[in-house]
Every structure is written in C-alpha cells, then in structure tokens.
Amino acid sequence: MATGITRDQTTGASGESYDTVAKILHWLIAAMVVLQFVLANLAEGAEDAGSKFQQLVLLANHKSVGITILSLALIRLGWRFMRPPPAPLPMPVWQSRTASISHWSMYALIVLIPLSGWMFSSAAAVSVSWFNFFQLPDLVAANEGLEELFKETHEILANLLGVLALIHLGAAMKHTFVNRDGAIRRMSSTLTLALFVIVIVLGVLGLTRVGRASETPMDRLLDAKTSAAGLPQWRIDYTKSYIRFIAEQAGATFESEWKDWRAALYFDAAHLDVSSFDVTISTSSVDTLDQERDETLMEREWFDGGNFPQILYQAASFSPRPGGEFSASGEIQIKNVTAPVELMFSVRQDGDQRTLQGNATLDRIALGVGTGDWEDTTWVGQFVEVKVHVEASIEGQDQD
After folding, report:
1. What span, in angstroms and rounded, lies between the C-alpha atoms of 187 and 84?
2. What is the enclosing helix (H) or strand (E) of 152?
C-alpha cells in the first residue's frame, strides 16, 4: 500500500481513502473557492449599487482569501507528492484520463487565479495585504495595459474554474448515486464536511459585514496668519518639486501625488519670525495611479472636489529643531474644516538654490476626509503621511 493510504471498509471497492491531511486541505480549499465566488459577486453588486466602501471591503477580503487559497494549494501539491494518493477507482480508460486532466487543471487554476488577481491589483497600483496584517510585494509595476490584461485573465480563469468545479461535483454525484463506489467517502469524513460548511458560513458572516466607526468631529475653525516681511520669495521649480502622500487602504499602503499646486514660500533660517508658507493645492489633481480611486476621492465623503476645489495650507510660526531641522506650525484647510499641522523639514542651501525636504502627519478623520462608512479605519487608515520636496532659487531680495 502506498504511503499515507489507509484501509477503510466503508470507502468502496478499492477500500482505500486519502489521508486526513489531504482531506482537510481539499475541503478547506473547496470552501474558500465557494467563498471567493460569493465575495466576488457581492463586490460586483456593491459596485453596481455605487457603494464603493462596501466594494473595497469585499474586494480586500476577496484578495486575502485568494492569497490563503494560493498558500493552501501549494501545501496541498507538496503534500500530494510527499504522500501519494490512493489508487484510482475502477473505471473506463477515457473516464480515468478525463478525471486526471480535470484534477490537474483544477490544481493549476487554484494557483493561477490568485496569482493573476495579485498581478491585476499590482498593475492597478492597489497593493495587496493579507487581512490587514501585512502587505505583500507588488508583482508588477503599475501599468494600465497590464491591468486590463490581468483583469480579463483573472475573470476567464475564475469562470473556467467554476465550470470545472461543477463538472467535478457532477462526477462525484454519479460515483455516489449511480456507481455507488464510495468515491466521496474516499476524500471526506464527518469532520471535513463539517469544516467545509463552517468555513463557508463563518466566512460569509465575517467577511461580508461592513461596520462603521464612531464619529470624531473636528469643531475648531482657526484663522491662519502669514507674514513675508522683507524676505525674498522662493522661485519654485515645479518640475522637480512635489507634494505626495502615503495612505493605507485595506492594510496595504499606496503613494499618491498632487499634480497641480502653487506655493508662496518666504523662509530664512536667520529670520524665522517673518518667514511664512502659503500653499494652494488643486483638489482634482490627485493622482493615485488608479482612476477609480481618484474618482472616489473627489466624492462628497472624501475631498468633495466639486464644492471644494482647493486645499489650503499656511504656516507663520517656525522653530529650530535638533540636527539643523525646523518645525513649521501651521494649519490646513480641507473642505470646511481647518486643523493644526506641524511640518518637520530641513533646508539645504547651495548658492541661491534651496532644497526643502519635509513631512507631516494628517488625521483624515479629524479633517472630515472619508465620512460615513469610510470612517472605518480598519479599511482606510486614519493617518496619512505627507511628503514635500521643493527645489527653488531665491528671487531678488527687497528689503527696506
């Protein structure tokens, strides 16, 4: 008898059944495949209904389950080679060959489908995380052409798996109710069938719920004052400068950039008392490398770009910090909310050239960015890191 094969008089003509580990892996993967189709269909329904937050949650869980399936499939394949399966049941040669082709095709699909989905997300500039615990590396760089290719590939392979699964189920029913050869009992037990049901039920209940976080309103509206007395304005090279932000979506970080912004910077380390920053950002110029995400950010729950086309930042209080850095205590106005922001930055001088590197952390909840269902910080991180890089020259000084 092959290693890992047990004798069981209830299994049918051959009396051979799969070992316990093989059975558990088989039914775990089968349950998660069913769960994947449920999550995918619910996400599609949420998209049609315009519920983008619910779509985000469902797709994030769909990806996490997919990564789990990929991992279990690789373990299952390794186990199959380590512990060979029992001899096949007696059947015509054509049925035996068809069954073999079907089984290996399904093995290939449960590996290729998660991989194609992972590549689709990477190409769409939406990194994948595993249930928000850790972020997975991107398999390919952001690319619209590859995004469309991997999306279509993922959908085709998923549909093919659905067809093969139905054929596989039909064949199992035939063996059970027509041939009565105990085929299902070879790969199942009361434990594994219970596990199959439990995983599906708990998966649907746990991974399709969309909760809401409690509100944390910001009710202070501050009046910013700036001063540029006697200092030359920085002439900014916008082709070499940027304002970017790093946020978290479904446990994975993504980096975005504001493409259209203008700033009036008056800064001199020797005259901090009269230095000032005044920055205006065009709300609609956000670029996250994903068109759907860009469009979502313009909606009322987020930046409400139609009613609030600009984001304003002003700072007029500066302090020196250790290591030659500086702190700018200012305020940012997003929509109708103004909140204090501390920008930590350094300035490098080379003749009349200036290079500023800075960073700040924003609390999107306090700023009212991402309201309603989007306040759930499980799916969209509460804090956003802003990175600033400015290259400029100094205009002619005008001091009286």
Report:
1. 13
2. helix 144-174
Could you list the residue range(s) of the whole structural domain that residue 381 is in?
A: 234-394
Task: For residue 149, name the pLDDT band (cuts at 50, 70, 90).
Answer: very high
In a domain, 291, yes or no: yes
Residue 92: which residues within 8 A CB-CB, separation 6 or more?
none
DSSP symbol at 269: G
| Per-residue model confidence (pLDDT) at position 167 | 83
C-alpha distances out from residue 392 to 19, 256, 318, 348, Å: 69, 22, 19, 11
- Tokens 């590396």 — which residue? 137
Query: Is residue 222 included in any domain, yes or no?
Result: no
Q: Exposure of 215 by Cβ count < 10 A (0-12 exposed, 13-18 middle, 19+ buried)? A: exposed
Amino acid at 265: L
Pseudo-torsion of CA 134, 139, 141, 144, nearest 10°? Answer: -100
Dist CA 324 CA 199 (whole Å): 56
Structural domain contains residue 218: no
Judgement on whether residues 154 and 250 belong to the same structural domain of the protein? no
**Number of domains comprising the chain:** 2
Asked whether residue 9 carries a pLDDT value surpassing 50, the answer given is no
Angle (CA) 267 270 271, round 5°: 55
Scanning the structure block, which residue is given the tokens 């998209």? 47
Give which of 348, 314, 339, 338 is closest to 328, Cα–Cα: 314
For 306, the token pair is 């139609």
CA 344 to chain centroid, in Å, comes to 28
Query: Which residues face 326 on adjacent strands?
Result: 320, 345
- Would you state the structure tokens that stand for residue 26, as one six-digit string? 């088989």
Dist CA 339 CA 218 (whole Å): 8
Against a cut of 0.85, is the pTM above it? no
Whether 109 and 77 have beta carbons less than 8 Å apart is answered as no
Comparison of pLDDT for 177 and 294, the residue scoring more: 294
Q: Please determine, for residue 318, whether its predicted confidence score (pLDDT) is greater than 80.
A: yes
- 376 and 331 together in one domain: yes
> Does residue 368 sit within a domain?
yes
In the predicted structure, residue 8 carries a pLDDT above the cut 80: no
Amino acid in position 377: T
Q: Are residues 255 and 328 in the same domain?
A: yes
DSSP summary character for residue 110:
H
